[in-house]
Specification:
By secondary structure, the protein is mainly alpha-helical. The protein is 62% helix and 0% strand. α14 crosses α17 and α15 runs antiparallel to α20. The radius of gyration is 25 Å and the shape is globular. Its cofactor is Mg(2+).
Length: 519
């Protein structure tokens, strides 16, 4: 069956039968504002960082980091701190094998650390990388069933409290001690910021606390975090390793060039189609059919596997969910929360996105994984989709109701429980937090058949959602915060603030980095 698949023409060369163009019924307007992005400006963007000299320098710096990570004399806490910095600087994907080796070695040992900061960092990194660890065992010396984490409440270790706060967001269902830790540490950190009498406050720590309380690290969109952390890392003179800063800066700007190229292709595709689009949706059907056939053809050519049924099934599920929403709209029906959620995690389109993502990044395709890409979607997909839906509802429901859209989760909960809008919004926030716990648990390496890169895609989709809708409708509205985020990611390079001379290279060699750049 698959041998008859042929690669279709590029989408913008598609010829649509005239029979597709018919009288179109009048539809209600979404009242979206005009785009703030200019096509000609996007096509004129230039980035010089793919030049050979920058690529060569990046490779040199990567080798220096590899040497550093392989230093057998480095203390485990130093290794963990460097791994944490590499992740926040957006560099960890270059050193996955080295990082896994360090963490795997750590997980096999019953490490005994006296500092809350060190234990919290260890827990967060191990769980973030899918290691099956028990929180009670990690925090055994800081938690008991009588006082919980109460004994550390009067401790002045604000850095430890901050890292415990961040670690608490990797909790799974049933870990009550981490729920208590989150409440306790948040209270402590807010009191710390409110204490105006401390003249000797570490301003770098203050900035880090503000950042964490705004959005926890585990929920943050990684590329935006990279841009922020590069600027923060520069200020951390006592703990800053210059060649890591230079590598992070180069790498961010090189990756930014890839994003700019992608943006140009997307914009070019749209502009060439503009004069052909009829007012109905049949053109979309032909373009979509063309696209998924091309994806299927590529997969068959590269791996000899026929994936078209899985792609079509995902789109069929999405269309069914849209039809259900349309029926609710035209009958003015307000669904129960259960009815709404059962449909809404699909109608947000996340399953379609992630099914396509799996086949684009997984090589080879795992036959066991295919079972979870058909009708029985895996918890990783379900949870990521639900977080996207609920975050979307929090950010857009008010504007969408003004446009005459169907009720969202907030309105469904209000209708079902007679709650106020603020009470409903708080319930949705709690539901997001609970869903993150399920996603954290599903992320366990032993709990799924997916490659790590796909799981990262799913978790990043959830992170993107909370970033996109944190300050309202960052997708359909002219949201200044979202615009600033896009500018930072796509149009504003990070200036190179550290350059090596030949003498500096010798002086800053890997053999004395700990003495010079570490505490």
């Amino acid at each position: 069956m698959a041998m008859f698949i042929s690669k279709p023409n590029l989408i913008w060369k598609l010829e649509v039968p005239k029979s597709c163009i018919s009288n179109v019924p009048i539809r209600r307007s979404g009242n979206y504002q005009p785009s703030i992005w200019d096509y000609n400006h996007i096509q004129s963007l230039k980035n010089h960082y793919p030049d050979e000299k920058f690529m060569r320098r990046r490779n040199e710096l990567k080798m220096e980091v590899k040497i550093m990570l392989s230093d057998r004399n480095m203390k485990q806490l130093e290794q963990l701190e460097i791994i944490d910095d590499l992740q926040r600087l957006g560099l960890s994907h270059h050193f996955e094998d080295e990082i896994y080796s360090i963490l795997n070695n750590l997980s096999d040992k019953n490490s005994k650390r006296d500092h809350l900061y060190a234990k919290a960092l260890e827990f967060r990194l191990l769980r973030q990388h899918g290691f099956n660890i028990i929180s009670q065992e990690i925090f055994d010396g800081f938690y008991d069933n009588t006082t919980g984490f109460g004994e550390i409440h009067h401790n002045e270790d604000t850095k430890g409290m901050l890292y415990l706060y961040e670690a608490s967001f990797l909790a799974i269902e049933g870990e009550k001690e981490l729920e208590l830790a989150r409440n306790l540490t948040e209270k402590h950190l807010r009191e710390y910021l409110a204490d105006k009498n401390k003249n000797d406050m570490d301003q770098n720590l203050v900035e880090l606390v503000h950042h964490a309380l705004e959005v926890p690290l585990h929920w943050r969109m990684l590329r935006l975090e990279t841009k922020w952390f590069i600027n923060y890392y520069k200020k951390r003179q006592d703990m800053m390793i210059p060649f890591m800063l230079e590598l992070a800066t180069l790498d961010f700007n090189i990756v930014q060039e890839t994003h700019i190229k992608d943006l140009k292709y997307v914009a070019r595709w749209n502009i060439k189609e503009l004069d052909k689009l009829p007012d109905n949706m049949k053109m979309c059907y032909y373009a979509l059919d063309n696209f998924i056939n091309q994806v299927a053809a590529d997969a068959f050519e590269e791996q000899g596997i026929f994936i078209l049924p899985y792609l079509r099934n995902a789109w069929r599920d999405l269309c069914k969910s849209y039809l259900r929403v349309a029926k609710w709209y035209h009958s003015q029906y307000i669904p129960s929360m259960e009815e709404y959620i059962d449909n809404a995690w699909i109608s947000i389109s996340a399953p379609v996105i992630l099914v396509h993502a799996y086949f684009l990044v997984a090589n080879p395709v795992n036959k066991e994984a295919l079972h979870y890409l058909e009708n029985n979607y895996h918890e990783i997909i379900r949870c990521s989709a639900l977080i996207l839906r609920l975050a979307n509802d929090l950010g857009t429901s008010s504007d969408e109701l003004k446009r005459g859209d169907v009720p969202k989760s907030i309105q469904c909960y209000m209708n079902e429980t007679q709650a106020s809008e603020e009470e409903a919004r708080q319930y949705i926030r709690v539901l997001i937090s609970q869903t993150w716990k399920k996603l954290n648990e599903a992320h366990d390496l032993a709990a799924h058949p997916f490659p790590k890169i796909f799981v990262t895609c799913a978790m990043n989709l959830a992170r993107m959602a909370q970033c996109m809708y944190q300050h309202g409708d960052g997708h359909g509205g002219n949201n200044s915060t979202t615009k600033n985020h896009i500018m930072a990611l796509l149009f504003e390079s990070v200036p190179l603030g550290y350059k090596h001379s030949s003498a500096e290279k010798e002086d800053d060699s890997m053999f004395n980095y700990k003495e010079k750049f570490m505490i």
